[in-house]
Structure formats: C-alpha cells, structure tokens
Fold each of these.
Amino acid sequence: MEELYIMIYIIVFIVGSIAGLLLSYKKHMEPYIISEIDVLTLVFSIVGWFLLFNHGLNHFISSEILLTIAFFCIGLAIGRRPGYGRKETAIGILIAGIVWILTSGVLF
Amino acid sequence: MFNLALWVYVGLALAIFGSLATVWGPGVKDPVIRTINTEVASVGVSLILLTYNSTLALLTLIATTIIVTLILFRAISRLEEIGADV
Amino acid sequence: MVASIVPQFVPAFYSSMYTTALYGGLIVAFIGLIGIAMEKRDIQVLILTDIVGLAMLIVVAAVGTDLSEALILPGLVVELAEIMAISEILISREMRKKDVHTSFAPMPLNIDMEIMTTAPNFIALLLIGYGVFLSGFTGGAVAGGGIVIYVLSRKVRGLPIVVLDGVGAISGISWCLWIIGFLFFFILPQYWLLSLFLAALGLLLKVASKIGLIGILMREEYGRK
Amino acid sequence: MNLMAQILINVIIAFLAGSLLLGFHRKVMARVQLRPGPPIIQYLLHSLKFFFKETTFPKTASIPFYISITVILAGIWVTGVIVGPVAKGSLMILFGIYAIHKIVEHNAGSSSGSPYGKVSCVRAVFSAAGELPLFAVIAVIFILTGTMDISGIIAYQSIHGPLIFQLPLAALMFFTLIVTKSPYSPFAITKGKEIISGFETEHFGMLRGYIMFSESIAWYILLWIFLTIFFGPISVVGYVIGMIVICIITGFINATTPMLNPNHSVMAQISIAVICTVGSIIMIII
Amino acid sequence: MPKIAKLWNKLADPKNIPRLFALILGLLLIAGFLIPVGLNTDQIYTRPAPQSQMDAGLAIAPYDRGGEILESPGITEAQYPENSQNLGWINSYMTPIADMLKGISPYFGTSICASPGGVIDEILYYTRGFDTILESSILMMAFIIASWLAINFTMDRKEEKGKGDIEEDVKRAIASSDRIASEVEMSNRKAREKQAKKEFR
Amino acid sequence: MLEFIDLTTISIALMIIGAIGVVLLKKPLDKVIMVSVLEAGLFLAIVSFRYLDVAFLTAVLDPLSIIVFLLALIKINQVRKSQLNDYSTVLKMLKSTENSEKNSEGGK
Amino acid sequence: MLIENLGGNVMGTIPLGDIVLYLNPLHIFLFVTILVFTALIAISRTETQVESMFGSLDENKVSVGKKEFKQRRFLSVICGIATAGAMITGDLFNFTLFMALIGIVNIGIVSAVKQVDVLNSAYQYGLIAMMCGLPLFGGAAMILAATGTLSLFELASIPASPMMIFGALVMLIGVCGESGIAPFFASKAEMFRTPGSPFILIIHLSSLFIIVRFVEILLTIL
C-alpha cells in the first residue's frame, strides 16, 4: 500500500509544481528580476514544509492526507520560475526544521 | 614393446621446433617459407595424435593440412599477383 | 574380456603424460601467439594462426579420452573453414584497396608436369571412394581432398556459376539430412540405424562438397593455359 | 495488492521520480555553472510534451526497427521495474536489460541513416566496454554474498551490515557506472554534444517521448539498484535522500568536467574497473 | 598521463588489436606453468591405454568398445545415460562392408570404426550430436561467406565465356595503349605550355 | 650397433632430419624435398604403430601435399618473375588501365 | 555454486543426449529478447546512410545492394538463432561452439560490404576469432581434464580447483576477444561503420548477450 501513497505524493508534487510554474508565469511576465519575498509562496512553503516534517504532531487527520497537502504546497513553492521561490523555500524549511527539532525531542 | 612416452616427446619436440621455426626460422619473411615450415609443427601434432591413438583425428588432420596449405598458398600467390603489401 | 575393454578410469599413460602434453601445447601456443604479437604483415599473421590452431589440438588431445577425440574432429574442419573465409576476406580487401591495379583473373600458369596428367584421376577416385566408406567428418575431409585434387589437375576452367550453386544446394540438403537424423535419434529412437545413416551421409556429403568448393576456387589459380 | 496494480504503480513512480531526478540533476549542473537552470519538472514536461507532437519518419530509415526500437526500449525498462522494485529478482536479468539498453542506443543511432546517429552507434559499441564494470560488480557481489537475487542481497545486508563498508571499491565501480549513465557525463560519449543528440537525433514526436520515458525509468532504476545493493534495507526517506545526494554529486562532476575522447573514456572506465575488481577480490580474500 | 592517452589511442587502431590479444593471451598461458595441473582420471568416455588393443590383436583396434552388431550394445560411458535410450548400439554397429573387412585383417580398425558405427560416431551423432550440428553449421557459414566473396568478387567469371581471350586481350591492350599514348601526349603538351608560359612571363 | 636400427629409431631419425632440413634449407624446392622426408618419417611411424589403413591413406595424401607445394611454388615463382620482368612503367600503366575497365565491369 | 543462485530457479531442461539445455528466468528473458530481435531483423529493411559532401550541395548516399542484403540478412538471422541457442545451453563445449559460430557469422555479416576499412577490421576481427579457438576450446578442454565433465549441472557442484580457475580465465579471455569488449573493442567497433543497421545490430547484440551469459557460466563453474 505504501507505494500507492508514494505515487500519489509524487503526482501531487508534480501537479503542485506545474501549478506553481503557471502561477509564477502569470505573475511575472517580465524577464528575471530579483524581487522581494512573495507572501503567498511563503505561506505555501511554510505550510508545506511544516506539514512534511511535523505531520506526526496531529492525531486527528491521517498523515497521508496531510502529506498529500504538504507535497502539493511544497511543489507550489519549489516549482516556480527559475530564480523565484528559493528564499521562500529556504524559510519554510528553516521554520519547519526548527519546529521539528523543538517538538521531536532531539535536543532534550 | 616400444616406449610410448618417447613418441609423445618427439611429437612435442617437433611441434615446438616447428612452431619456433615458423615464427623465427631463417627466411620466414617470405610467407611461402613460413607456410612450408608449419608442416613441421603439423607433423609433430600428427605424431601426438598417433600416440594417443586418435587415429581418426590423425586422418582428418592429414587431410585438412593439405587443404589449409592450399588455401594459404592461394592467398599468398593472389596477394603477390595483386602486388599488395601485406 | 568385454568388461575390461573399456577401463573405468583413464589409463596411467594418459594421466602421466597429461602435464607434459599440456605444457607442450601451451609452449606451442605461446610461441605462436608471441609470433603474432611481433608480426606486422597481415598474411603472416594468418599463417601463424595456423600454429595456434595446432596448439589447440594438442591441448584438447591431451585429455586422452574418446570425448576429446570427438571434440578434435570437427574442430579441425572448422579451423579449415575459418582460414578459408578469412583469407577470402583478406584477398577481397586487398583487391578493393588496389582497385585500379588488379585483375580479377589470376595469371594463367604454364605447367607441364607429368604427374598432373596421369596420377590425379586414380588418386582422386581412390580418395573419394575411401572417403565415402569412412563417412562423417573424416570421410568428408578425405573425399573433399580427392575432389580438390581432381578439379585442380583437370583443365576445368570456366565452371558455370550453376555448379557452385549446385554444390551449395547439395551441402544445404545434406545439412538438413543430418539435422533430421539427429532429431530422429530423440524423437523416434527405434529408428536409430536410419538416423545414423542419415547423419553420417549428411555430414559426409556436406563436408566433401564444401571442401570440393575449394578446388573450384583453386582451379583458376592453378588452371593451366 | 494485485500484481498488475503493483507493477503499474511502480512504473509510474519510476517514471515520475526518474524525471524529477533528471530535472534536479540538470538544475544542480546549472547552479554549479552559475546559471538559473530550468525548473525541476522541466524534464517531465518535455517528455509529456513529446507525446503530443507530430511523429515523422525519415525517408532513409530502416523502418520496422526505427519505430520498434523505442517500444523495445520502453518495454525493457518496464521489465526492469518488474524485476527490480516489484519482484526483487535476479541481478543478472537487470544487467541483461542494461545490455539491451546498449543495443537500443546502438540501433536507434544507426537505423535512422543520419551520420550523427551513426557516430553515436559506433560509440555505443565502443562503450559496450562500460558494461564491464557492471559485470565485475555483480561478480564481486556474488562471490561475497553467494546470491544474485536482490532480495537475497538485502537479507544478507540486514545480517552483515551494508555492503558499501565491505566492498567500497565495488561501490566505487558502480558509482562510476552511474556517472557514465548520467546525462552530460564525461563518459557519455554516445550523447556528446558534438553529435547533436547522439542516437536520439532523428527520433521525433511520440518516439522521442518513449525514449525520454524510458530514460527516466532507467535513471531511477540505476539509482535504486545502487542504493539497494550497497546500503541494505533502507526506508523510503532513505531512498529519497540517497537519490538526491547522488544526483547532486553526479551533477557536480558532470558540470565541472569536459567530455573525454571515446577511446579515453572507454579505457578510463576499464582501468577503474580492473583496479577496483582486483582490489575487491583481494579484500574479500583477506 | 599523455603517455597513457597515446597508448589508449593506439588501441583504437584495428590493426593492433590481434597483436594485443595475442600478447595478452600468450602471457596468460605462461601463467599456466605456475599452477598445478593434473588429469582427473575420473573421466567420461574413457579409452583403453594406447596400443593395448593393438597388442591384444583385436580386429577393430583401437576403437573396440565391445558389443555385437545389432545384438548387444557396446560400452559407452555417457554423462547422462538416461537421456540416450539406445546408448551403445551405434558403438557396436558396423556396415556389412566393414564387417567383411574386419575378418580380413586386424589392421583396418580405424576405417572400420569410421564408417557408420563406432564410438566416435556414437559421440558425434548421438550423445553430443548437438555439438556436431553446430560444427557443421560453422562449416557451412564459413563456406557460405567464402563462396559468396569468391563468386561476387575474388573470382572472375567474365572470362569464362570468351575463348579467344588472347585476341581480346591484345585488342584491349592496343586500344588502351593508344589511349595512354594520347594521354601522355596531352600531358606533355600541357607541361610544355606551362613551361612556355613561365618562360614568357 | 644394429639393435638401434629398428623402425622406431629410423622413423624418428627421418622425422628429425626432415624437420631440421625443412627449417634450415632456404630454397623452397629443397624444403619441399625435406618435407617429403619428414612425411616419410611419419609414414614409418604410423606403420610401426600398425595402423595399416591410416598408413595407406598417408601414402596417398603425402604425394598430394607435395604436388600442392610444387604447384604453388611454381605459380609463385612465375608471379614473382613476371613482376620483376615486366613491371616497367609503361606496362604497369597499361595493365592498370586495362584492369580498371575490367573492374568496373566485374565489381558490380 | 548452485545454478539456482544465479538466474532464478531452473524451470525446465531439454535433454539432447549429453547436452542438456536448461531454462531459468534469466535465460528465458534473454532468449525471448533475442528471438524478438531476430524476427524484427528478418522483416526489416535497411537504412540509407546520407552524408552531405564537402564543397558542394550534393549528398553522399550509401545503401545496401540487393544481393548483399539477402546474404547479410541470412547470416544475421543465423547469428540471432545461434545467440538464442547460446543463451540456453547447459554444456560448456556447446557454448564455446555457439561462440565460434557467432564469431564466424559476425565476420560474414560485414564481409559482404565494399568499404575497405570495414573489410580491414573484419579481417582483424577474423584473426582474433581464429585465435579464440585456442582459449575457448582449450579452456573447455582444461576444465574437462580437471573435472571429467563438461555439463554445467555437474560443474556447478564441483568445488573450484586452481586448474579450473585457470581454464575459466583462459575462456574468459577468449570470450572477451571474440565479443570485442575493451581493450579489444577497436576491431569490432570499426566494423559498424557500414550501412545495414539491422544486421550490424545483431553483431553487437550477440556479443553483449554472450558476455552476460558467460558471466553466469563463469560464476556457476567457479
């Protein structure tokens, strides 16, 4: 059964990436410019990475569904046009990582 | 009756001598001489086959040696006729 | 008596001579191979591969069983066939290389040897008859030798191409004969005698006709004016 | 689970994951060379795109082969997925599949009649030598573990620990193979840029789609085998991390090295193979 | 490194490959002297000691393996006797002519056993018949290749039709010599013109 | 003294003399003669092993090989002589053009 | 080593006297693949090599003539069948014979072409193929002498002795030379510069498959 979920995750990630690509092309028609952090992408990134690392924290919803959502969000953030979405992803990983370290008890 | 091992030794000696002669013998730059020299080695091998009582193989060897020689000579003379430097 | 005809183990002579014979074979092979490694001209290498083939015979024969002889027999004929094919490639390569200078027709030969007019018919007949009696690889080789000498000595220039095709067809059919014989051995074991003859004659015809082909190739090489 | 469903799911996973990894590999190379590079899903989008393009056939092509070779390529890699992740069967079959992959490279190049494809075809023959490390690796593994089944090797590793610690040289040899098979590699003489796209040059449309589909599966399977037979039983996360790390390493290597001359490429691989094989056998004996 | 590169480049020349192969093989064979060799005496298809049958005066020495024609099978130690139902029958079989020869002289063993029947035929046709199929196929392929090349290239078939070869040759020779003469003349003239141009410049 | 002169010794002696002769003599025709000595030795050996049929066949095939040698040698001698004699430039040119015509016919 | 360890479980045997062919998943895979390729070769036509010429707008076309095509197709099909046989054979000497057949047929496939370079490499490869008679048959004979058998089933259960290892090594060299892997690749690779894609495909296919099979045999007998 595990493989089915892996397939779903990958597909969702790809769909997210494509969506992210389309979104960013719609938003930025111009050639590449260094821009500020995009809030929407940041939110997706944080949500995605947070869920990926910390889906075990919650006990109400099955982790598969959470992971599916997480991969979609990550894809949305990573799959931007080249050059976009890097900082957002980094921030997302950072926050999710910190939360994971704090909650998982690695430190203590 | 007679010493069988002696025959094997003679056969091997002929084979080795013949192959040496074929490879480094006098005048082997000429392919004709080289081809004739292979005959010595083949007689050595014939002797070994004879001693090992593989007479059918011996017969076949004698028959094929001639034909192989024929083929080689054909190749040599043809190439010389063409004037090929191989 | 019958039980002791075939020994249980390999006789002491073979096992005591094995090391010697194997080493001898390896030495011959080594000499031949080093000769090839040092040789630069192509035709010379072709001649030297003959020595390597002889070394192979020694190594195989050294085992000293009926099986090893059965392995030698066809190996010999195969070696012959390969030399044939490769020398042909060499000739055709050189001809194509020197396309401008070459003639297809080999130089006609002016030979007047007494032996070439009287002996061959008899020898060839003898060899072919004996080869037919022997059958199999050996018989094929012997009878083929007879055909070769016959064709060589006779003034048969200008054999039509049909003959070559015919020879090919004979050998193809005999090959099929042999295959059928082989299948009979396992499908209908009660007809083993029939299959034995199919196999033996098929092989004989095949080898003999193929070697006879060499004679046809040679006839223009040594065909007289 | 139903076997067919399992095969299907695994093929899809292999295709998608392989495409993503190839895209990622390209991204890594781009970043090393200080370019932004295409998005990671670009490779996947390309492959999908080709399935909807018009397919044409060169007039000079050797027809049944020209078409069927792509189908064969896809077929063997689906077989590869079945033997590998699904059935965990014999390694020998997987390497048989690699041999056929070589054949496909060879024939896809020559069947079109294009001179570039022809050069690629001849080089494919040269680089058949690149398969030698493979055989050396499996031989060494077989000598150590006494089994050829992937499941058997996994079982062996769960008892004796990962093979990479016991056979580091074999792992190095296999890694050389991965580098060889990775795109833009210094050893990838069949797809060097001086011969356009090598053997794929004359395959358009749907046929190219099949080729790209199979290539991504091939890449995934290669990494999967490497991780499986050298790192023992690892979890999904382990596979993901391992594959990404390998992609990064090969990306670095490929981004910074020029392509070798065909002879040198082949002989370099062979030299590595010989040294590593002898070393591994000595290590096993000691 | 450049030396290695040069060496590797040399390997790309087909002419060097047989030599290299021979060298490597030769060196490997020399390694054969270092390892202990010996014949395992437990072989299949064993044969009696050389000349023992001849000394014993058997009529079909050296291939006497027992058995009577169409009555009892000879002795053949096959690897898998269960796969060959009629093992040994071929071994003991002889053609009528061979049977007759057998009575004449004890020195015709080889030819008697080579004609259908005998242990070698047993091995070649029956127990290891598949090998012989392959061998004869190799033979056939080699000859197909050779004869194809010969017919289509190395052998001349054009000449066979014309009997007056010499006359034709002479005619052709005259014609071509004419042509060559004219060509030579042409080139001479060209050369002279060139010379003239140079001198006048 | 005389006990050394039996079939074995004679045949071995013949073979060895023949072998040395074949190798050391330089002229091809001399070599052919020594080859026949060599083969006579082999013939004697076969006789001393008492294989009459093999000996019979050898007796037939040996002259055959000598014939083959002689034919080939005569042929090659002629080829070499002709190349020495008439390979003056004009003839060579003649030959070459003639053959180019022929080849264009036969090569197809 | 046991045969079962290598290519999966033995699924069946075809006994032909002393020569017993056997099938396991690996063999079936290789066997079926080679037959598919052979079938494709039998029905396919050849490509035309087109190259542009220097200094003009013309193109240089090289294609396979009809006579040549028939000859080469015949030999390719034989080569395919021989390779298929080599995949399932269970006898050492039988395997070497299949190799020899493949070798000679490989030479034949390219011998019919007109390019001098290709003929040259075919000749050089032919020399190797002839020399390979020694390592292949000689190696098999050495293994026979050391063990008293040629059947892979029997050999699999006999522990390796130095002489067997030597024989196997000699055979390995023979297979390497005959199938043209590095460092002997050049003579074979140069043969591929001729048109006739389906035919030269089988040359390459057979040599690779032979290597795969030989690795299996090597691991079986050692």
Amino acid sequence: MNAALLAFDVVLLAGLLGVAWRCLASTDLFRAVVLFITFGLLLAIAWVRLEAPDIALAEAAIGAGITGALLLVTLERLKHIMNPHRGDAGPSPPPDPVASDTGNADAEARDARDPGAGNVALSCAPTPARGRWSAVAVSGGLALLLMATLATQDHGPGLQPAVAAHMDVSGVDHGITAVLLNFRAWDTLLELAMVLLAGLGAWSLGRHDALPARPAPGPVLPGAVRLLLPVAIVTGVYLLWAGSHAPGGAFQAGAVLGAAGILMSLARPHSLPDPDPRLLRIGVTAGALLFLALGLWGLFAGPALLTWPRNLAYPLILIIETGATLSIALTLVALFVGGRSPREDA
Amino acid sequence: MNDTRQSSSNPPVRRARRPGWLRALLAMLAAAALWAVLAGGAALAHPFAWLAIALTGGAVLALPAGRALRLNPTALPGLLGFFLRTSVLGGIDVAWRAVHPRLPLAPAFEPYYVRLPHGPPLTLFMSMLSLLPGTLAVRLEGRRMTLHVLDGRSDNAATLMELERRIARLYGLDSDPPGSAR
Amino acid sequence: MIADLLTAVLVLAGLVFFAAGTLGLLRFPDVYTRLHALTKADNLGLGLVVLGLMPQADGPAMILKLVLIWVLVLAAGATAAHMVAQRTWTHGEFERRE
Amino acid sequence: MNLLLVTAAGFLLLTILFGLIRVLRGPGSGDRMLTAQLFGTSGVGILLLLGFALDQPALVDVALVFALLAVVAAVAFVRQHGLPEPAGTPMHENPVEEDPHDPGHNPTEKTHDR
C-alpha cells in the first residue's frame, strides 16, 4: 500500500515537473495553455496527496473551470489585437532551446525525473542556448539547497495542536475554516481585499469590448448549460455549507459559482443584459466590506478587532462567508469579461 | 452509405411554453433533491439549502424557456436500458478498434435527417448519439445532421432510428403505434 | 468479500477501457476518430470504475453522488466532443496563425 | 483492496502521462483540446479511486467539481474560434472523404507544431 502510494507520488511528481517544463518551454501558445490545464489537474491531485483537500477543491474549480477559459479567451484577444499587424512579417518565433519536441513519453518521464528539469526550463526557456550550462549549474545548486533545507527541517506538528485546543471557541467544526475566519481572520480579510483589488484593476484598465465571437450553434451547448448551471449553483452553495465542518468554504464556493457564471457568459443562451453597475459594485465589494464592518463591530462590542463573541461566531462566520462567496464569484466573472461594463461610463 | 434521406414526415409540433413559476418550481424541487444527495436530507433545514434552492429557481428563470413537453415515464427504463446497452457496445467497439493491430477504421461523414422537434428531445438525441457505437454528431443544419462514423460500412442509421424512436416515446411524440418495431 | 471481488473486477475492466481510450487517442488517424475514443472508451471506463466503487460506498447518498458524477462526465464528454467536432468542421483542423 | 485502488489510480495517472504525447504532437488544436478533456475524465477516476482507497470522502467532492466544470474549457475553446465562419466552409455539400476540408480552404492555416 505504502509502496504503491510512493510509486504514485513519484509518477505524479515526474508528471508535474515534465508538464511544467514543456508548458514553459513551448513556443506554441495554444499548446502551452492545454499543458497548463493539464498541470492544474495534476496539481489538484498533488494537493490531495499532500492531504490538503481544501486546496484541491479550490484548484479543481480554478484549474478546471476558470484558468483554462481565461487563458483561451486571452489567447483569442491577443490574436485579435495583433491582427492588424498581420501584414508585416514579424520575426519568426524564437527557437525552442531546451529541447525539440521529444514526442516520447519515456524521454519525457526521464527528463522529468532529472531533479532540476523544471528549474532549468524556468531559468532559460526562451533564451539562446548558450546560457544553458550556467542555468543547469544554478538550478542544480538551488535544488541542492532545497534538499538540504528539507533534510534539516524538523517535522514538528506545527500549529495543529493549538488549533485543535481552541476549536470549541471557533464556532465551526473544521480546523481550516476556524483558522481562516476566526483565528487568522485578518489574513482572509486581506485576501478578499486582494481579490477586490484585482477586479478594480481590471476595471480601471478600460471598458470591456465585446468578444469577437459568437456562441456555437446547435442545441447541444444550451442543453448542457441547462443541466450544468443548476447543478453548479447547488454544488457551490453546498461547498459553502460544507466549509463549516468539512473541506469547502467561501473561496471554493466562489470559484465554482464564478465558473458557472463564466459558462453562462460563454454559452450566452440569449444576450444577457449588462447588470446594473451600482448593484455590481455592491456585490463585488460585499465580501470585504461585510467582513470589515463585522470586524469593526467586534472591536467596539466584542473582544477585539476581527473577533467574534463565542455564541455568535457561527452565524457571523456564515454571513461573512456568504458575502465573500458572492464577491469572489462576481469578481471572477468580471475578470473573465475583462474591463468595466459600458454602462459604467454612461 | 445508408439511405437515411427521409422526408420529415412529422413537422415539429409547436407547443405552449411552460409558465415561469412552474419551471422555477420544478427546478427548485430538483435542487432540493440534489441538495439532499450532496449534503444529506437532514441538511435541508439549513438556511443554505433554502439559499441554494432559491438561487436555482432564479437561475432557471434567467435561462430561456423551453417548450413544455410531457414526459412519458414508462418509456424511461427502455430508453435507459437501450442507452446503457449500446454505450457499453460502443465502448467495446472503440476499444477493439484501438487495440487491433491493423486499426480497422473506415471513417466517413454521413447525413442523417432528424425527425425530432427542436428542444430537449433533439438535445438529448444529439448528446446520446455521440455515446453510441461508431457515431458522433458533427453539425446540425435545420433537419440535416452531419454525422461522423467510425465505420461507414456498418448500418449506423438503424441504431439512430431506434434511439430516435425511443426518445420520441419518452416525450410522448410517438406517431408510430406502440410496439411496432420501426 | 463478494463486494470486494465485484469492485476489483469492475475497476480492472474500467482500466482496460481507459487504456484502450488512450491507445485510440494515440493511434487513431484524425481528430474525428480520436473524438470517438474520447466519448466512448473513457466514459465507459469511468462508468465501470464508478460502478465498481459503489459496493464500497457507505450509503445511498454516496451511490447517488457517484452516479451524478458519472452523468456529469457523460454530459461534459458528449458536449465537448460535439463542439470540438463542429469547430473542426467549420474552421479546419489547425489554429489560425497570426 | 485499497492496494488495488491505489494501483488503479496510478495506472490512470500513467495513461494521462502517455496521453501527453498527443498534446505535445498535436497536430491540430482540436486534438489538444480533446486530450485535455480526456485528462479530465481520467482525473475524475483518479480522485474517486484515491478517495475510496484513502477513505477521504471529501475527494468525491473534488471529483464532482472536476466533472461539473470539465466542459468550461471546451466551451471557451469553441467560443474562441466562434468567429464568423470563413468563406468556403463546407456546409451543405457532404464530402465522404476522410478530409472534409477543401484543400485550398484558408491556405494560411499551418500548424505551429514543430
């Protein structure tokens, strides 16, 4: 059993390194995107093996649902932007220095087992081949340092006993949610603020242009959306609910709901009206503002900033998580659509 | 190539659209069932269950309305059995062709004229036929569907007509007398 | 015991179809034929794996969840196969290079 | 039993790694996209097998999320290419040959693959 798991881990690690390397070294952007989607899949499995199902859930939703769509549409936009310059023949794409297309899984796996392969690709992907050996030396040194660090680190239990000792005051039954929304609520507030900043950053860059595309004809896609959308909504809320006692929570739920929104905007069953900008702003900021307001209320009425009275902890955490889910989902869809809606400027 | 050119004998039946409240109600019932599967029946009392159910109802209203079709539940087991049987056959068929040293493929494009009306029946048909042995829906233009088949020499249309007949029975669109074998 | 045997047989049968799907992916000559491998062999493989795991599930809710996962994968596979086929039909096999 | 399930998961992982050959070789973007879709199915299988082998029911939720969102990338792929169809698209004439495309159709199309 343990030997089988070890073999699984080794294969997984080799796959991760190999995919990461080919993804970075690929000069064909579409291939790089597909490799990145594959990387996300393998990464989710790696998080499972690291016994972090919460992160695996988030990676599954973001890797499978959002990054793929985001990168593919970005690729299309890049082409659309570069289209006018199509006439002047630009320089041919830089040669792929690390390796030509091996096209051979054995070679792929062999290369990937080389401990520095990922670092090699990272440090010299599009540069001329003459930097290769110094890069190999540097990454080999880094790998040695990393291994030395790992070997000398003591494997203590970390903060797990401390969290377990205080679970009864947290208001929830899942350690990670307790840490995220009670013991270290400050971190989560800053993360929400970061999501908000990302959304605002995209909006500040300009208005979103209509994608130069139209939905695929035929009845299959609308039918699939009809099936998937309700299931995605229930699953998203289920993950939010599960967060209080099992893997799940606001980020995972927000990512699933955001992916559902992206699917909606991609399939576009009928022309969706732009939402009211005022409502959209409220929705995007709801998570961070609600969190901050309740935290401030804790400062004046409760023990301290961003702490909850013990008997109110559960409902307060639920309220904050609901707001955060809404904000994360809306921000992800807004990032996908890119730019503020035309009605904002009107 | 099979002769699948048939006149579309029964034109699509235009039916009234289902009122919004009924669609939302049905979707909410389905959402409640799904919630019970995911979270357990006891969790239906949690406010988040109501939130999920309400959101689903709202989302279904945002989707365009389909035509109201009466389901005929007695046809469901037959369709499911047929589907499972043929999809197992389809998997075995593809697996056999993939491992065969000489790759026995004769890929071809074939036209097929669909008789099912647009809406859920056609969607179901097009999704299911991609899972049947040797057929893949490529494109639909009006009634004319382009199929890709793995083996142009075999009688693909017969399976499709059988599937079409069963789906038509599921939605109560059957014009054939019951029991008539095609 | 019988449940374990059933699980072993069904999961192994599922693996055969996954392997055949990958083999088809590598050996079949064009996109359309490879799409057949995607929609049929792998979905059947996953169906058998799901079926094999059912005896190990601890309750009807888990069994229904497994069935739901399989149905979702079937729907995703059929939809994706149709859309890739349609896009290849209308726009050619290769990425436009600009 | 669990040994068998873990081995099965490892086998599925190996099929993914072999399938990567198709992503690297292409030749068409459709090939790459369908391979990614295939990986999603195998990934769901791996997660389910691991979930039962390691007795972590939460992994079934991860598999559910994967299954649910597997189609999004493919939809984005079609949307990406959902540009107005180029002239000369074979629409109504039905070539029975293996290659449905007019050879002269959009001659700038070249694979970027090397």
